[in-house]
Specification:
Blueprint: H1 3-17, E1 25-26, H2 32-42, H3 48-54, E2 60-62, E3 67-69, E4 86-92, E5 97-102, E6 108-112, E7 115-118, H4 121-139, H5 151-161, H6 168-177, H7 180-188, H8 192-199, H9 204-217, H10 219-246, H11 256-262, E8 265-266, E9 269-270, E10 289-293, E11 299-303, E12 308-310, E13 327-329
Antiparallel strand pairs: 1-2, 2-3, 3-4, 4-5, 5-6, 6-7, 8-9, 10-11, 12-13
Helix pairs in contact: 1-4, 4-5, 4-10, 6-8, 8-10, 9-10
């Protein structure tokens, strides 16, 4: 089993344990003939590591909109704002950041707000693992099934579970006083929700220094750190909206269908604790669809979600990482 297969299987196990926390799905593997047919009919050559991922699953979703890899039949979607030489094969974070690869070089990248950043399938899977660890801290499922997980992942989750009553100010002080390398280990031993809280207590200078250190050492790990904090801020925003609705108020005039999404209602009632990004509805109460074109000329229907935006760009303003007050709705 190679590293991609190994990480994928670990993510699948973790999402199975987090089934009551947020929605995930994993399609059956794509067989070689399907991959070859897709490449031939679309005049495309997939990156080798993406081929390995499709041999694990022909599309999957991890914890709501944390990360989605499209089915082969949906790959190549032409999206406004994406450079013409890039093909879209998924999305990440849930704020419009897309997973792409270059047609000629086959380099895997993310595209967000017209910014193209180098990425990898391993980077994507490491991001998903980090998000699942945060889910364990939030949902606190039975720890006994963890014994089936990778040893390193299990040890990390045990550290997270070992966090009892902690004072964020004390953690922020310990972070500020640590040297660069111990500081990195200190931060990554924390669940993402605690990282976000710590960042709100430390000086903006330290936030920038920490991210700059990560960027010099490992740009993908640095961007994944930022992505994780963005995702946590989005989750916290909608969880706060749910609390506001409970108390008779909200920051936006949600309609009934949107409130059902905020409360995570499905056919069995409210079964997910992690509020997702809500659907956009028209005046008749129907979910708004977008029709997008595939590279081979086909059409794919996509359900519109409420767009997420930021008051300050967190890639350049690291002090706002994980800050729920930095979230706003696109166009509102």
């Amino acid at each position: 089993m190679n590293k991609i297969e190994h990480y994928y299987e670990e993510i699948k196990k973790m999402c199975g344990l987090l089934v009551k926390y947020d929605k995930s799905y994993f399609n059956a593997p794509a067989i070689t003939a399907e991959i070859d047919s897709f490449q031939a009919s679309n005049s495309l050559t997939l990156p080798d590591e993406l081929v390995e991922l499709y041999k694990c699953a022909n599309g999957f979703q991890v914890l709501g909109r944390t990360a989605t890899v499209y089915k082969l039949s949906e790959v190549g979607i032409k999206v406004k704002g994406i450079p013409k030489d890039y093909v879209v094969f998924g999305e990440i974070v849930g704020d419009g950041e897309l997973l792409c690869f270059h047609v000629a070089t086959r380099e895997i990248v993310t595209v967000y707000n017209n910014k193209v950043s180098a990425y990898s399938v391993i980077g994507l899977l490491e991001y998903c693992i980090d998000q699942c660890k945060d889910g364990f801290f939030m949902a606190k499922p039975d720890i006994s099934p963890f014994l089936a997980l990778d040893t390193d992942i299990l040890d990390s989750i045990r550290k997270i579970y070992g966090l009892k009553s902690v004072m964020i100010r004390d953690l922020a002080k310990a972070f500020a006083e640590a040297e660069e390398e111990p500081r990195e280990k200190f931060m990554f031993d924390l669940p993402i929700i605690i990282r976000a809280a710590v960042f709100s207590f430390i000086e903006p200078r330290l936030c920038s220094e920490f991210v700059d250190h990560l960027r010099r050492k490992d740009p993908v790990k640095a961007d994944n750190f930022i992505r994780g904090m963005k995702r946590r801020a989005i989750d916290n925003y909608f969880n706060r909206e749910r609390k506001n609705l409970d108390e008779g108020g909200a920051s936006f005039h949600w309609n009934v269908q949107q409130m059902r999404e905020i409360y995570n209602f499905d056919d069995k009632g409210m079964s997910y604790m992690n509020a997702g990004i809500v659907y956009a509805y028209d005046r008749a109460g129907n979910i708004v669809d977008d029709v997008l074109s595939t590279r081979s000329g086909g059409k794919v229907l996509y359900k519109n979600k409420i767009g997420i935006d930021y008051k300050f760009d967190v890639y350049n303003n690291n002090q706002y990482l994980g800050n729920v007050n930095n979230i706003k709705l696109k166009g509102v």
